[in-house]
Design a protein that fits this description.
Helices cover 0% and strands 43% of the residues. By secondary structure, it is mainly β.
Length: 198
């Protein structure tokens, strides 16, 4: 979520139309979304949809859209998917980004869902701070036993992406199962579920 939003300067994005069978035919629909955090297959559904997309053209056609309504001075990630007439969705596109032009627009603090989820080898999560704050992010099993600390200390305003190799604080790999990632950023708290497969 954004705070202190300013009116945005519209910007154009471009992509190449896919087919309904790889490079043949025409897709039925696009789904373009944006987020302040990197978009993955795991969190695509949590990103915000963008309205006004054109109907897909014939495969190979260069498509474009003028996007407006996003805040100036804020970096955004965008990704697009398409679906064919049989309801088969494509993977997400290569990630598009619109860098922030200035740094004077404040973000409210946020914490992302982990990705990929389920995870097999490693996982990432991201947070943003509107101002410097204490950040404590930890992993627990479903019984409440502490396994790993992502972060525990004071951090400056901004965004950060954290990685975990799925081992506990002693370096031992954790087993398959459901885990909880608990984040406390200033006075705000989040709990995200993570599934690990082995």
């Amino acid at each position: 979520m954004l705070a202190s939003i300013c009116l945005a300067t519209p910007f154009s994005i471009h992509w190449t139309a896919p087919g309904d069978d790889s490079l043949i035919g025409r897709a039925s629909l696009y789904d373009l979304r944006y987020s302040n955090l990197p978009i993955t297959a795991a969190n695509f559904g949590e990103a915000t949809p963008i309205a006004g997309l054109p109907a897909p053209a014939v495969a190979g056609t260069r498509e474009s859209l003028l996007v407006s309504g996003l805040a100036d001075g804020v970096a955004y990630y965008l990704a697009i998917k398409s679906v064919d007439e049989a309801g088969n969705w494509s993977p997400i596109s290569n990630l598009m980004t619109r860098p922030g032009q200035t740094t004077d627009v404040a973000l409210s603090s946020s914490f992302s869902s982990p990705w990929p989820n389920p995870a097999r080898q490693a996982v990432q999560c991201a947070y943003s701070l509107s101002q410097s704050a204490h950040v404590q992010i930890e992993v627990f099993d479903i019984t409440g036993r502490h396994l790993h600390t992502f972060a525990n200390g004071d951090h400056a305003a901004g965004r950060a992406v954290l990685s975990w190799d799925l081992s506990d604080d002693r370096g031992r790999s954790v087993g398959a199962g459901v885990y909880l990632i608990k984040a406390r950023i200033g006075s705000l708290e989040w709990t995200k579920r993570l599934t690990i497969l082995r």
